[in-house]
Write a structure and sequence with these properties.
mainly alpha, single chain, 241 residues
């Protein structure tokens, strides 16, 4: 089967599974809600970053994004579904590429929508405190938000293909992301700057003192996602269905 029909087939699987559609919706809802709550916090902070405050919810919305990526791939390892998929698309590399595209493209579209909603909600809730937030950097962050969430979904998809378990993937990634976001926090200038979430979220900040810039940070996250997808593709090609 050529790539385009394979992609269409994989997209139909995602579109017809309510849990996956709900997962994409949760990315927008969770991000917007937590961004609004962050904007309502009037506590004085000398290091207040209005841009990151508007996109604060991404720290939680990414959990929904990686859950979507993990579930989309883990469904293939249940009930012999992978054998059926490979019977239709015997070329395993082509099938996995179609699966990755079927995960990444809707995740990117929803991520961009999430970025726009977060920006609008954030500016509305921040009010006068967000007066220094320009539309140029806001649009940059909104686009970066979409790319970042898509990369995290692909990162989870690749890791799930390698581990063959969505539960195992989420058991690793969710604690990892929560530890990085809330324990490591704003510490910069160390190896933590090159972790996938810390690097990618630089684009959501107005200023950053770490080693990476907005787009180089996303490039690091893309490298993590690419490595996970390569590992997943290797697993699909080398291991029995």
């Amino acid at each position: 089967m050529p790539f385009t029909p394979a992609l269409h087939s994989e997209w139909l699987k995602i579109r017809t599974l309510r849990s996956l559609v709900a997962g994409l919706g949760a990315v927008v809802a969770v991000t917007a809600v937590f961004s609004a709550l962050a904007g309502l916090d009037n506590a004085a902070d000398a290091d207040f970053d209005p841009l990151f405050s508007a996109f604060f919810g991404v720290s939680f919305g990414q959990i929904a994004a990686i859950t979507f990526g993990a579930q989309a791939v883990s469904a293939e390892f249940q009930g012999g579904a992978l054998r059926v998929s490979l019977a239709a698309v015997p070329h395993r590399g082509r099938w996995f590429a179609a699966k990755a595209a079927a995960v990444g493209l809707p995740a990117l579209a929803v991520g961009l929508l999430t970025g726009v909603v977060s920006l609008l909600v954030g500016k509305a809730v921040l009010g006068d405190r967000g007066s220094g937030l320009g539309w140029g950097e806001g649009v940059r962050a909104a686009v970066g938000c979409g790319i970042y969430l898509a990369l995290m979904a692909l990162f989870a998809a690749g890791l799930t293909a390698l581990l063959r378990s969505g539960v195992a993937t989420l058991s690793i990634l969710i604690p990892f992301l929560l530890i990085v976001s809330f324990v490591v926090g704003d510490v910069s200038g160390s190896v933590s700057d090159f972790l996938p979430d810390k690097a990618g979220q630089v684009i959501l900040h107005e200023t950053w003192d770490g080693a990476l810039g907005p787009w180089t940070g996303l490039a690091v996250t893309a490298a993590w996602a690419g490595a996970a997808l390569l590992a997943g593709a290797w697993s699909v090609r080398r291991r029995d269905a």
